[in-house]
Amino acid sequence: MPYVNAAIGSILSQTFCDFELIVIDDGSTDGTGEALAAYQDSRLRLYRRRQNAGLTKRLNEAIRLARGRYIARMDTDDVSSPERFERQVAFLDSHPNVALVGSFCRSVALSGRIEKWVYPTDDAHIRATLLRRNPFVHSSVVMRRTALDAVGLYNESLRYVQDYDLWGRIAANFQVANIPEFLITRIERVDSVTLADDIAWARFTAHAAAQLSVIRSLNRPLAAVWLIEHALWFAKDTLVRRFSSGQQV
Predict the structure, then answer these.
(1) Integer Cα distance of 71 and 199 in angstroms
(2) Helices (H) and strands (E) in the chain — how many of each?
(3) Which backbone phi and psi does 93 adopt, to 5 degrees?
């Protein structure tokens, strides 16, 4: 709730004005729906749902409701730079073979610490990175609707990293890119070291499943070292979080 107005305001103040803003209130109980209903901008289309269906299903619902040829993604606790849409629409217009474009990102922690997230920008390097990790910030992407029509929407069986799975399917059929500009600011509401082990394990297994899907989509061989690497990563991550929080190992 505290970040919604900043997120909505950053979209409604874009220098590129020809868009519709689809907002789905997924059964909120904190006054978010009322705050959204107060906006008087005709570009904002608000849909209020009584029951929470989860992020992945609502992402697909929003895409089905959208009428534009480009689909931009945005979270309620992120902020887009004023020229984000202008930059990304111009890029896609001038690169007809690119189906997905993201950008660099600033990440702001609750402590005020700022990190700059930089990603590969060209198709070849992004494809190589996809085999190991997610090379896009979810809230930074703009996709062609025709690409989604071709490869399908988000996999609704995935609670986490549903974006990573989709990027692999898009990259298997189209070119992808990142604009080397910081067009999105992400507000980190929860520090990763505070995540409980069961949540961390759920995210780990989801990431592993999504990465398998990406590898298969890109027709790359899978080596046994992949599973070992991920198991070691999870063990290291768990130990780091426990030491950071003062828990006994």
Answers:
(1) 29
(2) 9, 8
(3) -60, -35
CB 74 within 8 A of CB 4: no
Nearest CA to 55 out of 79, 28, 81, 31 is that of: 28
174 secondary structure, DSSP code: S
Digit-coded pLDDT (tens) for 10-59: 999 999 999 999 999 888 777 777 888 889 999 999 998 888 888 999 99
Question: What tens digit of pLDDT does each residue of 195-215 get?
Answer: 455 555 566 666 666 777 777
Which amino acid, 194?
Answer: T
| pLDDT value of residue 90 | 98
Which residue range is the domain that position 240 belongs to?
194-245
Distance (Å, rounded) from C-alpha 29 to C-alpha 230?
A: 37
101/211 same-domain check: no
What's the pLDDT band for 161 if we cut at 50, 70, 90? confident
Report the predicted TM-score, pTM, of the whole model to 2 decimal places. Answer: 0.81
Q: Are 181 and 85 in contact (CB under 8 A)?
A: no
pLDDT at 249 over 50: no
- What is the count of structural domains for the chain? 2
Same-domain status, 227 and 188: no
Give dist(CA 35, CA 38) in Å, integer.
5
Same domain membership, residue 146 and residue 124 = yes
How far does CA 249 lie from the centroid of its chain?
33
Please name every residue paired with 186 in a beta bridge, in sequence order, or none if there are none: 78, 107
Q: Is 239 helix (H, G, I), strand (E, B) or coil?
A: helix
